[in-house]
Structures are given as structure tokens and as C-alpha cells.
Amino acid sequence: MYDESRDIYDRALSVLPGGVNSAVRAAPQPYPVFAQKGDGGHVIDADGNRYIDWIQGLGPLLYGHDLPDPVTAAVQRRVSEGPVFGMPTELEVEHAEFVTRHVPSVEMLRFVNSGTEATVSAVRLARAVTERNKIVIMQGGYHGAQESTLVEGGPEHPKPSTHGIPQSFAQETIPVPFNDTETAKQVFEEHGDEIAGVLVEPIQANSGIAYPENGYHETLAQLCEDAGALLIWDEVITGFRIGGLGCAQSEFGIDPDITTFGKIIGGGFPVGAIGGKTEYIEQFTPSGEVFQAGTFSGHPAAMAAGLEGLKYAAENDVYEHIDDLGRRLREGLTEILTERAPEYTVVGTGSIFKVAFTRADAPPQSDCCVNGCRQDPECARFSACPKRGTDAQQMETDRYARLFRPAMRDEGVLVSQNQFEANFVSYAHTEEDVERTLDAYRDCL
Ligand SMILES: *Cc1c(COP(=O)(O)O)cnc(C)c1O
């Protein structure tokens, strides 16, 4: 049934490390299926198997695998007019105008080619602007494959989370637990005048999904303001997904100094962006002194897909649809868990969802929280539910990877490739997809 994928994986292992070009793709057991093509909310693998796809490119696909006609037309026209120029194009200006019109804190932005590039440049910018070195990050957060943020441990003993990063680099990063205001305050008390910025995801969506407790982001914003550090929101995954075109910052009412984007802002093509207040973003070269450059930055195909995709969302009921299906999934899953696995937790918000394989020894979630965990202190399960990305490490990861996920795949449903990543709803998904997915969960849990 997966023979073709197996054969390709066999070949891949000889020429690509681990058989893939990004680590998480090799997480599926016993080996990944290879994508052949997409069809709306579905994907078809190399053996011709069709799946309901909740991976959705790991976040960039607001529309599933078929872009809306105007988006496809714009991308095709751009590609036919020449792939890249090394000269500016009007399209980049238009995309930047669109983003600055819709995202409250963004007055100006620089496009790059990935979320990683965006966070690298944001950190460099914060260090330059403040003339300080230290960056506060959240344990269990993810900001791409970069030196300043692949750091784990506590505030006192940060250490690289991968080989190849010098301990001296990690020394400039301060990892703190998400949703822990006390530790954040202590760190600022001790290091306030050395901290260039706090880099935080509005919702920890790469290992969770952990929703912020009430007031947490306000505390971080205040600490930054008092210490003269920059608040950097990493909206690579939440941008143009949570909070609609205003992004998560409009939903939470926070006004970051700098915001990083990626994923949806390029409509499925490689992209990233650093946005924020003019006084900061203008510090990038050539208007300022902070070096920043890229051969492919502002690439026409990515700009066309991103801009036309967002324009389409402005004119259609895209967010209503995906948020509605997200809610149905979470409600349905909450019911299923009450019956089958009360120790597990439905997490997520808007068009992001997941069943976290927690080991909660507490009343079932349906009693208190029918739409995913919102960190409601009144909830009977409050203390048992995941609060931070690192909580995902305590989950039943083997049961997820070895038993549950392969069973779902056999039922024709692809959920996140490991227990840490989120599932994404697209505009192409249907109520039928939701029903079939809930049936599969019922059978596989
Ligand atoms: C995906 C992601 C990144 C990295 O983006 P890439 O395009 O994969 O480099 C950074 N931050 C967050 C929050 C992300 O979800």
C-alpha cells in the first residue's frame, strides 16, 4: 500500500540526510509517505493513496493545495515574466503596503526568504538598536534553525540545543518558561540592562499548542518597555491565521516593536519578513547600519502568491470558514476524548487544533472547556493542562508516533508528523472532511 513511498525513501536515504530536507518530515513511522500532488484539502501520495491533509505544508497553506484562481493566475504571470531580477519590483511595494495597512504594529517591513531568516534579522536588529546582546526566548518555542534561539536550559544555564552552536553563543540567550511571569520578572531584574529583546510566539504552536494565560503577554510587553528592550513577536505561524488579517497581535491587543512573518505571507512559496516600527526597521541597510540582504528576497512568485492570497482573504469568508471548522473539530474531539481518553487534552484556537497526548489526572475536559484549552483559571483542569511548549515533552510521544499516527494514516487522515506540531485547517477543507476525521480519531484513539 505504501510500496512506492518505501522505494523512494530507500533511494532518499542514500542522497539526503535522513531521507529528507527538513527533519520533521522523517518523523512518521515507519517511514514517511511521499507527496505526489495536492487536491484541495487532500493530498495524494506516490502510491496514489488519498488523505485528508491536516499538515498543510506545516502552516503556509490558507487555501489547501489548490490556490484560488486569481492567486494561480498572478503566480503564473510572474513566473512567465522572469523568475528574479536583482532589481526592485512594484509587487514588493504593493505587498508591503497591504501588510502595513492590516497589521496594527507594522509600519514598514523587509521581506526575506524564510521564517528563520526573519528571526535571525530581527535578533540582529534588536541587538543593534539597543546595543545589548541578550535575547530572552521561551523554552519549547521555535524560531527556526538559527544560532540565537536553538538554546535550551534555564536562565542560569543556557546551552545549545543542537551540536554545532558554541556555548559562548548560547550564553547570550536567556530561555524562560512560557506563561511564567515570575521568572520573566526575575530575569529582567537581574539582566534588564543587558536584554536586547524578548522573542516570543503569541501562541506556542510548534510544541504545544500552548495558549497564553491572561495577562502574560501584557507583562512581557511592560517588562520590555521598562527595560528599554524590544518586544519581538514571532508571528511566522500565527500571522494571517490567528486574528485574521490583523494577525494574533490584533486578537491579543499587543503592540510589538518588531514582528516576524513567514508561512502564509508567501502563500505557499518560500518567504519571511521582519516588520515593525519605522524607527527600528529603517535601521536595516541601506537606510541604516544593520546589514541585511538576500538574492531572492521579495521573490516575485512568493510576493504574488502572498499578496493575492491575502487580498482574496480580505474579500471572502476565509477566516470564518477555517475558524468554524477548527471549532467543530475541537468540539468533536473534546466529546470523543471524554469517552475514550479523558487524560488527553484538546488544544488549539481558530484554525489550529491538536489532541495533546497528556497524562492529565483531572476531570475530563468537556466539563470545563469545550473548545480547546484557553488557560481559564476557573477550569477544573487548569493545573493539569499544558501551559508551555516544554509540557509536550512529557506527553505520550511514542503512543502518538508508533500507534496513533500510523493508524490515522491507514484511515486516510494525515495529522501532524509528531506530537509537537500543530494541525491546520484550510479554506479547502469541508464539513465532510471534519466528520471523517472525527470518525478516524474515534477509531484510532
Ligand atoms: C515555521 C516557523 C519558523 C521558521 O520558519 P522557516 O520558514 O521554517 O524558516 C519560525 N518561527 C515560527 C513561530 C515558526 O512557526
UniProtKB/TrEMBL annotation:
Gene3D superfamilies: Aspartate Aminotransferase, domain 1, Type I PLP-dependent aspartate aminotransferase-like (Major domain). GO terms for molecular function: glutamate-1-semialdehyde 2,1-aminomutase activity; pyridoxal phosphate binding; transaminase activity. CDD domains: OAT_like. Pathway: Porphyrin-containing compound metabolism; protoporphyrin-IX biosynthesis; 5-aminolevulinate from L-glutamyl-tRNA(Glu): step 2/2. It holds the Pfam family Aminotran_3. Its EC number is 5.4.3.8. Its cofactor is pyridoxal 5'-phosphate. Keywords: Aminotransferase, Isomerase, Porphyrin biosynthesis, Pyridoxal phosphate, Transferase. It is an enzyme of class 5 (isomerase). GO terms for biological process: porphyrin-containing compound biosynthetic process. It catalyses: (S)-4-amino-5-oxopentanoate = 5-aminolevulinate. Belongs to the class-III pyridoxal-phosphate-dependent aminotransferase family. HemL subfamily. This is Glutamate-1-semialdehyde 2,1-aminomutase.
